[in-house]
Design brief:
Low-confidence stretches of chain A: 1-26
Shape of chain A: globular
Number of helices of chain B: 15
Strand content of chain A: 5-15%
Largest sheet of chain B: 2 strands, antiparallel
CATH architecture of the largest domain in chain A: 3-Layer(aba) Sandwich
Strand order of the largest sheet of chain B: 1-4
Radius of gyration of chain B: 24 Å
Number of domains of chain B: 3
Oligomer: heterodimer
Order of helices and strands of chain B: HEEEEHHHHHHHHHHHHHH
Helix content of chain B: 40-55%
Structural class of chain A: alpha/beta
Strand order of the largest sheet of chain A: 2-1-3-4
Number of helices of chain A: 12
Distance between the termini of chain B: 58 Å
Radius of gyration of chain A: 20 Å
Largest interface: A-B, 66 and 69 residues
CATH topology of the largest domain in chain A: Rossmann fold
Number of strands of chain A: 8
Number of domains of chain A: 2
């Protein structure tokens, strides 16, 4: 049956996505597959989210995992290019996948940025289900002089999957030298890690897989590092990241909801896993204070920064001082750093 | 005739009479509240096809009006006038003039994908919002939104070099939308970072001109993408009955500026 882009197929009964078949069984136990993965940092991690890149690499190194950066990678298209032309976005993401598959021969590509991760997964879905996407990507790839990516060549994972499957809580617990004991953490996953569900067929597959509606991989890892996770209802709420600058008032309201909810839940820090969310929370925390007179004090830290500190790395080496919201005092108060 | 809910019960369409007798029956008071009769004759029967011809709008015809999209909508929670289900209804009915009443807020969709996730008919309402915002701009009903300026600045950089540089995007975006870069809150943010990290300030805020990141060997990909975008733009404008972009507007200065 010929399908169009974005068409997750006909659903029947309780089987919500036809694409979810037995080929997407719960994540395998073989840690080996995740010990050495292709690494796609993306544009933000070379800029405002430099600390996320540094802490991801540092945590990987401390845990004995290896990252091979995808050579000559390009922007995945983020949340913007699709509004100009969705198939260009599919091509941009597919080019990264193509390099990982055809030049690096890597079975797994890891992206710590939610936007990159989402777009690679979306490209994987569209190229597996939509003839028109395959045709356009094939044509542009040919003109650009590289092999077109074929769905299924590479497995795309998030930094959370990488640490959860490649290391796991049991091992992580034994590697923690500076427990996050006493630190109350609200885990914030954002939009792009779980929505829309049809591009994440490996989620909601029972034990070992992450949940679409109550994601917990970050909670699991940070709990293993000793943190106390608070009950945070806005885990997958939207921070308005797509309109952080173009509709700032809306973004400030959305961010303020998240910050207030985290504070109400008793959190000292919000753990983030996305450079756009992280920057949005930091920027609009300042903006809410300056423009609306609404002050909040909860601090934002990338989850990799928290894990790095727990593994005994210095806060400086995981870039805690680079964050706009200065989390050093929050960590020092608990005697962590 | 079915009540077109919001369209017919807007305050200006409610008629009340303190004293009213109809066929000898006294219906004074709240009994005499009526909805003004209205005949809609200005349907645009091509509206659904036009939205479907734009990226994201392809599946608008599938909607069966369950309202799941509006129910979960992030922006609706902030602004109750932001109502994707209602707009999809208007598009499917061809009620263009009703749709135009909300033309200035449709672009505010934040692409959180809650609607696309919740939709039982795979309408991809997020895409329909983007297509509708684009339709409004292409048809000249609204000026380019700040979101469109941002998307264009971003995409032009990606297509030109394969990568983006955030400082450059922020600078160019504020220039495109005619806003001063010295927003009080941006300055405050810069100050907070500067206290600890003077070098990072330049990188984050883009006050310093850094070496522009670019993907090695991007030239061929750039040409291929530009060709695709130009062909698609022509096709979309034709579907909306508009002249080609070259005839309608001066050529983009993108290649000159960002090359």
């Amino acid at each position: 049956m010929k399908r169009q882009a974005g068409d997750p197929g006909r659903r029947s009964g309780t089987d919500m996505t036809e694409g979810k078949t037995m080929t997407h069984s719960p994540p395998p136990d073989d840690k080996a597959k995740y010990q050495r993965v292709a690494y796609y940092p993306g544009c933000a991690l070379e800029g405002t989210a430099h600390a996320y890149d540094a802490s991801t690499r540092a945590v990987g190194k401390a845990l004995g995992l290896e990252l091979d950066e995808v050579p000559d990678w390009n922007c995945c298209g983020a949340m913007e290019v699709k509004n100009i032309d969705p198939k260009v976005q599919t091509y941009l993401s597919s080019r990264v996948l193509s390099i990982a598959a055809n030049e690096m021969h890597a079975p797994v590509v890891m992206a710590p940025c939610n936007g990159c991760y989402h777009n690679l997964k979306k490209a994987e879905y569209d190229l597996g289900h939509d003839d028109a996407s395959r045709e356009t990507v094939g044509k542009i790839s040919q003109q650009a002089g590289h092999a077109a990516y074929q769905a299924g060549q590479v497995e795309t994972i998030h930094a959370l999957d990488w640490l959860k499957h490649g290391v796991g809580e049991a091992e992580l617990r034994t590697r923690v030298s500076k427990s996050l004991n006493g630190l109350k953490v609200a885990n914030y996953y954002g939009c792009m890690y779980t929505r829309p569900r049809h591009i994440f067929p490996e989620k909601d597959c029972g034990p070992g897989s992450d949940s679409l509606y109550q994601p917990h991989f970050m909670d699991d890892l940070l709990a293993a590092a000793g943190a106390e996770n608070v009950d945070f209802p806005l885990k997958t709420a939207c921070c308005g990241g797509a309109h952080t600058l173009s509709d700032s008032d809306t973004s400030t309201k959305l961010v303020l909801n998240i910050l207030r909810a985290a504070e109400a839940a008793g959190a000292d820090v919000i753990a983030t896993e996305c450079p756009t969310c992280h920057a949005g929370l930091e920027m609009h925390q300042v903006r809410a204070e300056k423009v609306f007179g609404e002050k909040t004090t909860v601090k934002m830290l990338y989850f990799t920064q928290l894990l790095g500190v727990a593994l005994g790395l210095s806060p400086r080496s995981v870039g805690v001082h680079e964050n706009v919201s200065d989390g050093r005092a929050a960590l020092a108060e608990k005697g962590i750093a | 005739m079915p009540i077109h809910e919001k369209a017919l019960i807007r305050p200006e369409n409610l008629l009340t009479h303190d004293k009213l007798v109809v066929d000898g029956v006294d219906v004074s008071g709240h009994w005499s509240t009526f909805i003004a009769p209205r005949v809609v004759t200005d349907y645009n029967e091509r509206l659904q096809d036009e939205i479907a011809a734009l990226p994201g709008g392809e599946f608008v015809h599938r909607c069966w009006q369950c309202g799941s999209c509006t129910n979960v909508c992030t922006v609706n929670a902030v602004n109750p006038d932001f109502n994707p289900r209602f707009w999809i209804y208007l598009i499917r009915m061809g009620m263009e003039s009703e749709l135009l009443r909300d033309k200035d807020i449709i672009w505010q969709c934040v692409s959180c994908n809650k609607c696309t996730d919740a939709c039982p008919r795979q309408v991809v309402p997020e895409g329909v919002m983007k297509a509708t915002a684009r339709w409004l701009e292409l048809k000249g009903h609204t000026p380019k939104s700040s979101s469109t300026h941002f998307d264009e600045e971003f995409s032009e950089q990606v297509i030109a070099t394969g990568k983006i540089e955030e400082g450059r995007i922020i600078r160019n975006f504020f220039a495109r939308t005619g806003q001063p870069l010295r927003q009080e809150w941006l300055v405050e943010m810069a100050k907070r970072i500067a206290r600890r990290l003077p070098v990072k300030l330049g990188m984050v805020m883009g006050f310093a001109a850094l070496v522009r990141p670019r993907t090695r060997g991007w030239a061929k990909a750039r040409r291929a993408i530009e060709g695709h975008v130009a062909r698609e733009e022509t096709r979309r404008r034709a579907a909306l009955g508009l002249a080609s972009a070259a005839a309608a507007a001066p050529p983009s200065n993108d290649s000159a500026r960002t090359g």
